Amino acid sequence: MLVLFGLNNRNDTRSYLFKVLRGHTKGILCVAFSQDGDYLASGSADNTIKVWSFKTGKCLATLTGHTSPILSVAFSRNGKFLASGSLDCTVKIWNLTDNTCIKTLRGHELGVRCVAIAPNGQTLASASADRTLRIWDLQTEKCIKVINVHALKLPAHTPRSVTYSPRGTYLISGGTDHTVKMWSVKTGESVRVFKGHKLWVNTVACAQTSRYTYIASGSDDGTVRLWAMRQGRLLRVYEGHTNTVECVAISPLAKYIGSTSTDGTVRLWSPFSDDPVMVYDLQNENVTSIAFSPDEKFVATGGDRNTIKIWLIPTE
Question: CA torsion sign, 284 to 285 to 286 to 287?
Answer without folding.
Answer: negative
